[in-house]
Write a structure and sequence with these properties.
Distance between the termini of chain B: 35 Å
Helix content of chain B: 25-40%
Largest sheet of chain B: 9 strands, mixed
Radius of gyration of chain A: 24 Å
Number of strands of chain B: 12
Order of helices and strands of chain B: HEEHEEHEHHEEHHHEHEEEEHH
Radius of gyration of chain B: 20 Å
Strand content of chain A: under 5%
Largest sheet of chain A: 2 strands, antiparallel
Number of helices of chain A: 26
Structural class of chain A: mainly alpha
Largest interface: A-B, 59 and 58 residues
Shape of chain B: globular
Distance between the termini of chain A: 44 Å
Strand content of chain B: 15-25%
Helix content of chain A: 55-70%
Oligomer: heterodimer
Order of helices and strands of chain A: HHHHHHHHHHHHHEEEEHHHHHHHHHHHHH
Shape of chain A: globular
Number of strands of chain A: 4
Chain lengths: ~500, ~375
């Protein structure tokens, strides 16, 4: 063991070495990498603003700009009085049909609003993390139905997106949309429902295999009585349904209620590691490095689950910046659609076609496929979705047949198939896509004139070298079309 | 008689063996077709094939038990959910095999882990990268002229065809696939794993696009809805000149924790009608005898109903196998409702890898032990 002064000296030497590595400006390519990974695409001017900053400065700037509220006005219906579920059952068939149509329309409006927020927020990192938590605490409107409850959950996820994970977990467990989605609203002593208890361990905190079947059963009893007020759609605790007896969860026995069980889960070291590893896959590469993840988990625990210290560790890590991890992630459909609109400064009035495109490509916000969220990674790309991506890009950059894309991968609505809806969406897509066209002339004019203009376009658009390099004599607009058609454009 | 009814009876005749030669098209040489249907979410086996004669069934399910007089009776003890009535003619023709109690040791009750176990054919505590069909086709590729080893219908995950090793594509229907396939024109390799994956998908698209034909019309009428269109696509792929060894369809929504009755009935209706239409179409093109249709799912559901009018995650379940070459009847033991485990779940009698081994060795003649990591005794249903 080193004597204390030497330890300090060694630590200082390491510190200054680490600083030296971070002290250089991140440059154009580094800024593009940082902004694309933490947001959705980035314009040339945004990239240039970040290029002169050092790593720590750039990351601090992003973390200082995060928000707890959206920057755009949410749809009006979110403030309307809650419509109790039982009322639907009391309606005539006709009224019920009309109510269902209204719910679908509201859900669509809600998605378009979120995409607008992603496009225009001053803090794309806030929206990326809101989407990250939506995927983590996956909840689908297909089951929840009430658009207001979906919005309230979205607001909660945003409020704590870069806040505190423990706070977020406790709040999500009482969130009305979650209570409906994982059936806890009906979980009672007389017959516990295990759905939430299982997923809170498997998917929200510990990961599969880090608890036993008996833990699920006991934890389910602790969450009995956590329910929903029928009239207001707010959380309510039903005493008569709650099991006040002793439960043993992960070796700890007591008359636990739900909050205490959540604290037992949060006290496990696996919880911080589970979140840290998921952030690695979100921000760095598909293959987490266990040692680095353990380091981040330590930071996370020391910070009592505050998100910003963890995010600072992630975004200033060697792994995040290393050359081998550039372009190692496959863009999600939302990355592709929103990122393309942002990068090329395409600002359509109607964002519903953007929602339809992301949905058709496999990521319909507010409707993840199941409680595990979107599988992501290589699973984003199969022949169907890859061709769908290419068609959408072709449409935006060349103006080809807009119907082809919706036809390729129709919006799925298994729960509620309605006659003619596919056709209505197709028409909406055709009309709405008219102002989704890339203005090559304007885009080129916006780039500074320089000898290395072509190289700069490549650097802005691609995270990895192109597979099919553009011919030397291609003009900048043609070059952009070739770049977005390149397989490398699917990477970030 | 309506035209549709006439066609139905014609098809019925055909599959009972009287008029089967009418429009027989030659099946692509070399490998027979398997249509796999995933019942996503975990299907309730007890309300699919109902053990109506066991008094424990009604006791465990005061609200959910299918009344005896509504069950489509098959034997003295078992019958189909009323929504599966379209499959009764198949049973009568002895072309519907019902495999009971399919599961595996140390069952996992997580959807995601359990379907991963099924998709990769792993042990309960073993993690494998590639799907079981990817491994099968890597070891024994389909004939070179085939359009693909496997086709996943819909934009879903590749499931048993995931990972590298098989030529697999996903599409909604061949017409749309061909229209957009011109956009794939990748060349080259990459050390970047993500890019390498994209490039391999592009290559598979280009190969398949050369060999698939566009929309074929059938006299058989497919039901409306996503499963009906998927079944239609399966029939089109079966009719294609260049062969395909596997078509994977799926139907989602079986995770019925609450208010199961209506939801489950509607799902089984889609399934039953979809299967019946697919059978008609396959008879029409002379491929009913060279095709097997089989269901699978991550697990069944718990015998005792819960307080929300639903059922929680269970273990062993029943699966359906249909085809002109199928030896109909009941396989495996009836659900042992008197021998539930500590969680109230059913014991399994047929290992799912025996189920798979049947397709591998008896349907395709592929060495199943190599693919499944150990010898699993095939069943006798084909």
């Amino acid at each position: 063991m080193l004597p204390k002064p030497m330890k300090i000296a060694a630590a200082f030497a390491f510190f200054s070495f680490a600083c030296a590595a971070h002290a250089a400006p991140i440059g154009y390519e580094g800024a593009r990498h940082l902004l694309n990974r933490t947001g959705f695409g980035a314009t040339d001017s945004e990239v240039r603003q970040f290029a002169p900053l050092e790593r720590n400065q750039a990351v601090d700037r992003l973390l200082a700009a995060t928000r707890r509220e959206p920057s755009t006005q949410p749809p009006e219906f979110v403030d309307a009085p809650f419509e109790p579920f039982y009322r639907l059952r009391q309606m005539s068939a006709e009224d019920r049909m009309a109510a269902r149509r209204r719910l679908v329309a509201e859900g669509f409006e809600l998605r378009a609003w979120w995409v607008r927020e992603m496009l225009s927020t001053p803090s794309p990192l806030t929206e990326r993390m809101t989407l990250f938590w939506h995927n983590h605490f996956a909840t689908s409107q297909q089951k929840v139905r009430a658009s207001q409850l979906m919005y309230r959950q979205n607001a909660l996820l945003r409020r704590e997106a870069l806040g505190n994970f423990a706070t977020l977990l406790h709040a999500v467990a009482k969130d009305p949309a979650m209570l409906v989605y994982l059936d806890n609203a009906g979980n009672r002593k007389q017959a516990p429902n295990e759905n939430f208890a299982r997923e809170v361990m498997e998917l929200f905190t510990l990961g599969e295999g880090r608890y036993g079947e008996q833990d699920v059963k006991e934890a389910a009893r602790a969450f009995t009585g956590w329910s929903l007020d029928r009239e207001t759609g707010e959380f309510t605790f039903r005493r008569m349904w709650h099991d006040y007896d002793t439960k043993t969860v992960l070796g700890k026995s007591g008359r636990w209620d739900g909050d205490e069980v959540l604290d037992i889960l949060l006290a496990r070291p696996e919880a911080a590691e589970f979140i840290a590893a998921k952030l690695w896959r979100e921000f760095v590469s598909p293959k987490p490095d266990p040692r680095e993840v353990a380091r981040w988990a330590g930071v996370f625990r020391d910070a009592r689950y505050e998100m910003k210290p963890l995010m600072r560790a992630v975004l200033t890590s060697q792994a995040f910046w290393s050359a081998e991890n550039r372009g190692a992630l496959i863009k999600s459909p939302v990355d592709l659609v929103v990122g393309t609109l942002r990068t090329f400064e395409i600002r359509p009035v109607d964002l519903r076609p953007a929602v339809l495109a992301a949905a058709a490509l496999g990521q319909n916000p507010f409707s993840p496929p199941n409680v595990k969220g979107w599988p992501g990674g290589e699973a984003w790309i199969n022949s169907s979705t890859l061709l769908g991506r290419k068609q959408w890009l072709d449409r935006v950059f060349r103006g080809s047949d807009p119907a082809a894309m919706t036809a390729q991968a129709p919006l799925r609505d298994d729960a509620n198939p309605q006659k003619g809806r596919g056709e209505r969406y197709r028409r909406m897509m055709e009309r709405g896509m008219a102002d989704y066209t890339f203005d090559g002339e304007r885009f080129i004019r916006s780039l500074p004139v320089s000898a290395d203009g072509a190289a700069r376009v490549d650097m802005l658009v691609l995270a990895a070298a192109s597979v099919n390099p553009a011919p030397e004599d291609a003009d900048a607009a043609e070059r952009v079309r070739l770049l977005v058609a390149d397989p490398a454009y699917q990477l970030k | 008689m309506e035209r549709r009814d006439f066609l139905k009876s014609a098809a019925l005749l055909a599959f009972t063996g009287v008029g089967g030669l009418a429009r027989a098209a030659a099946a692509p040489q070399g490998r027979k077709l398997l249509v796999l249907v995933e019942l996503k979410g975990g299907n309730d086996g007890l309300n699919t094939v109902v053990p109506f004669a066991d008094p424990r069934y009604a006791q465990l399910r005061p609200r959910l038990a299918i009344p005896r007089d509504q069950v489509v009776q098959l034997t003295e003890a078992a019958g189909l959910h009323p929504s599966l009535a379209p499959l009764k003619p198949l049973w009568d023709a002895r072309q519907l095999a019902i495999v009971q109690g399919v599961g595996y040791p140390q069952p996992n009750l997580s959807h995601f882990r359990s379907i991963e176990i099924w998709d990769t054919a792993s042990k309960s505590d073993e993690y494998l990268d590639a799907g079981w069909l990817s491994r099968a086709f890597a070891a024994s590729p389909s004939p070179a002229g085939f359009a693909a080893d496997g086709v996943v219908v819909g934009p879903n995950a590749m499931g048993p065809l995931a990972g590298h090793g098989a030529r697999a594509i996903a599409l909604n229907n061949p017409e749309q696939f061909l229209r957009s396939a011109r956009l794939a024109r990748a060349e080259g390799e990459s050390r970047n794993a993500a890019l390498a994956h994209i490039l391999s998908v592009e290559r598979d698209v280009m190969v398949s696009a050369e060999r698939l034909q566009a929309r074929r019309k059938f006299a058989a009428e497919f039901p409306r809805g996503p499963f009906g269109s998927a079944a239609n696509t399966a029939a089109q792929l079966a009719a294609n000149d260049a062969g395909v060894a596997v078509v994977r369809l799926s139907l989602a929504g079986f995770d019925t924790h609450a208010n199961q009755q209506g939801t489950h009935g509607a799902l089984l209706k889609q399934l039953g009608e979809g299967f019946a239409a697919l059978r008609e179409a396959l008879v029409e093109i002379g491929r009913w005898d060279s095709t097997v249709i089989a269901t699978y799912a991550e697990f069944g559901r718990r015998p005792r109903e819960n307080q929300s009018g639903g059922t929680d995650h269970g273990t062993a379940s029943v699966h359906l196998v249909m085809g002109g070459a199928v030896k109909g009847g009941l396989y495996g033991a009836a659900p042992a409702l008197d021998r539930l485990d500590g969680s109230g779940n059913l014991p399994f009698g047929v290992d799912f890898r025996s189920y798979y081994a049947t397709f591998l060795s008896r349907w395709w003649g592929i060495d199943s032990a190599g693919v499944l990591g150990a010898g699993f005794r095939p069943l006798e249903f084909v």
